[in-house]
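Hi team,

Below is the intake form for Sugar ABC transporter permease from Tessaracoccus flavus. Please confirm the fields before the structure is written into the shared record.

FORM ID: S-0412
PROTEIN: Sugar ABC transporter permease
ORGANISM: Tessaracoccus flavus
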Amino acid sequence: MADPSARRRSRGPRYPWAHVLLILGALLMTFPFLWQLLMSVSTNAEIQSVPPQPIPDRLHFSNYAEVFERLPFLNQFGVSVLITVARTAGQVVLCSMAGYAFARMRFPLRNVLFIALLLILMIPSQAYIIPQYGLVQAWGLLETPWAIILPGLFSAFGTFLMRQQFMSLPIELEEAARLDGANPFQVFSRVMLPLATPGIFAVAITTVLYSWNDLLWPLIVTTREESMPLSVGIATLQGQHTTDYAVIMAASVMAMAPIFVLFMLMQRRVIEGLATSGLKG
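The structure came back. Fields below:
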């Protein structure tokens, strides 16, 4: 008797047009990244030539070395890592606790506060810049990493995501833990939090991506090269009259590499977390 799987393989894909569309979509999505890689090893003249020259005559890896001459790259990389780690740790802890409170605990004005939280999601982040700057300035934190870290320690989106994650867990687990004598913090930390791992990964990776690429707020509160994260440092490479696009692309590739590797390693958990956290309310 013929193997059904072998028979399916001999017939080829069931929807060939769908595979063609997916391949075209994948090429479309990866084209900017491939274009960036080619620009990072080109000369500035090749990049600005008309018509565009997609393939350079010779690979100029010296652009990557020039990044270290134009920027305190390692110092700014360290600032970016510090900001990203601190923001991610803060959001995982605070958003998990707030999300659990909104999902499982009963307290006065809970629904009103949750609606206020949802309203925060609808207000553009630019509206907070002036009051945030006033607070950071009053606290004497300008030109320090804390000026960037503090406003990013908590987010309404992370709280909403964790609330949805906790609401998807069976309430019988909590009741069983309470019958065994666990207090509310023990129920949260030892029973519910380990089960909410997919949501925690989703909050962590979205915070990492946002913090690593955040430009506007760090650009406002930092002016010294040593206190800038990489996102701001790369932006300063753009000149008033001329811009070396090849060096900017090389710096962007180096800044993007750690996040790309992290996402590739954790993509299954991230997709699982987003899928299980946002569908149940």
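SUMMARY LINE: The chain has 15 helices and no strands.

Thanks, M.
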